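Entry 14. Ran structure prediction on the chain below.
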Amino acid sequence: MTSGETTVTTNARRAAETWESLFRTQVALMRRFRADDIWHDLTIGEYDVLYSLASGPEGGMRLRDLNEKILLAQSSLSRMVDRLAERGLVRRSAAADDARGTVVSLTEEGRRLQRRTGRAHVRTIERYVGEALDPDELAELARLLDKLRAAQSRIPSTPARR
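Output, structure tokens:
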């Protein structure tokens, strides 16, 4: 092996194959979810915001905390929250401890729409995921994914190559 060459370990190869499988599965499922006939009043991204707020603290979430749960750039999330506020589904308010911070919370209409859409979405999740895996497999997959997600805060980032 020459200077600068690296070998790909068996574990690295397995990790890459596992990631690829996870990613492709997520893509396949998201395509099916997006095609479902339940997204009349919301896009799947808007639903994600409402769901995150519904499962978050009762008083709402700071925009920056909401952004950590949503796979959107801060500016895109801010515009989406503005659109949801215009529709009366969320409200924006200044944070009590810092007027520069923005807290986003669900309105009653937003909560109602999230619950209605959520019930339909859970039925499709049960069909696409629950019919593919038995209860023990679902529990094991959830355990492994939770472990993988939790480990990310302990694993140092790879330095950027120049």
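The mean pLDDT is 91. Will compare against last week's run tomorrow.
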